[in-house]
Hints:
Elements: H1 3-25, H2 33-48, H3 62-70
Amino acid sequence: MALDQHRSINSMVETVFKTLKTERAWRTMFETRQDAEQAIGHYIDGFYNPVRRHSALDFTSPAQFEKMAAN
């Protein structure tokens, strides 16, 4: 993988983790690792991917973007 590609992918992943930490995990004490995994999974599958607006998609949600792309 070219270094520029690696940097680009790394910055995207860092952005996702920063968003996850600030919007879901920050100041949350989970009793077990399983509780944390479940809460984060619900956040990603129930909000981040289908509902949350993304700047890379011109501030539309992924679900809206897919609908527009299908038309």
